Amino acid sequence: MADNHTLWADVQLLALHAPELARTLRPGQFALARDPTTLDPYLRRTLWLYHIEGARVAFTLPARDPLVVRARVGDTLDLLAPLGRAIEFDSNARHVLLIGEGTRVAPLIAIAHDAIAQGRAVVLVTHTPFLPHSAGQGAWPAHLLSPEIEYRTGDGLDAELIAWADAIVASGSAQLYRALADAVRAARYRLEPGFARVLMDLPMPCGTGACYACAVETSRGVKLTCADGPSFDLIEFANQRTR
Amino acid sequence: MSIELAPNWKRSLTLTNPLMLTGGYAPNLAKVSEPSQGSTSIGALVTLPTTLRPRAGAPLPRVVETAGGVLLRTGAANPGLAHVLREYDRAWEQSAIPIIVAFAAQGVNDWATMAAQLDSTAGVGGIELHFNPTMDALDAIRAVRAATELPILAKLDLDNARDVAADCLAAGANALVIGRAPRGMRIIEGHPWYGRMYGPAAKPLALRAVAEIRDLRLDAPMVACGGVHSTEDAREFLAAGAGAVETDSAVWLEPAVAARIAADLAQG
Ligand code: FES
User: Fold this and answer.
1) What is the reported pTM?
2) Which residues of chain A does B249 touch, with a Cβ-Cβ cutoff of 8 Å?
3) What residue ranges do the domains of chain B occupy?
């Protein structure tokens, strides 16, 4: 471990020296981590990709997590990675809209940088209307973002923004995802397959399809967040009972 | 090494290693059941508990950590037998180890339908039954027995295994699995949250139940399950009277652990 500090609110940044992973991990994928010296905490923790620079891979996870509290720079973590499917944009998608809520903006940042590197225009919005007014649940701080990301706070479901976008990725609550499906239909008349993806953030005990604790009901059957996700086409949830 | 889980029955269920892995459906589940050393393999794969039709599972959250492990309440989330057979029948057919299909609690007629479908599915070596309190376990075993000659393993709850073990065998089960993960509870945001307990804390409870069943001197093989995370854990269960041992949540933490325990056990 090369770094372990609180980025903002309840978001911890954990940077690892992991040359192999730095080559293979793609935005949208994740890692499951544990301290190999103990069974406490018992389960692996989900690490969301934040940034890759050389051989250094930075992830985010909740700041109060016991893994964060214990781990020290220089420690070795046991990772299962890369897991899940990467976010791939259609080659024609020139305008990318990323919508996150509070701390759930974190997994969108690596996706934003990747899209910019591919020559796409990116707008990132912290969607605030559904957030509780408790401490640490405000908008993602602008100073943590690189200047090439066009950043806004407020209404991520604005009709003009949705009309501008060629692709959307959202990271937040079930309420946000329901509202996003409605907003896309209102702004574009139809919710097309492949237009919007949503990130599911559930506990994933195994990451290998062994436990089914991460199963979600979609319009295309029961799927696993760890193997089929962690991002899903919004259209798979738009007509579903969302929990 | 050879362990027979259906002695004196029309179809045998022979393990070449006492370590069985539970979870998922893929016999080569990434790094999980592949031997990490030599040519040793685990003895069998016991699938995720499955129902005839797909089940989305319990509401979130489904996992709550506690000291010594985790409470899990999946609500038997699974893709349904038809999907499983479509996805995995080739892999099962080619599997070097027997596949034991676990049945999640549901209607007895659905169990009989599943058993009949699996009877001729290549690679399937047995069925493991998971009951719930609303089912008549003995009727359920008889219904499955009538539908298939596949060996039946009855996976019993630790708290009543001693009371029902002999009757389950008389109804047609070939072997007993002791047992299901123990039921537990936590208070989450002021409300009770129920689940089954996985992790090291489950081991002493399962170990005691295994020893109690051994003392009944039933004429049937016994598989142990509960909190196995290491070779030492598996050896304790074998010493307590089990003929084979299932490991479950340990592979969530360390996918290679099953192959490593199997290799250690193969060396005696
Ligand atoms: S985390 Fe176990 S199946 Fe997805």
Assistant:
1) 0.92
2) 205, 211
3) 3-59+81-182+200-266
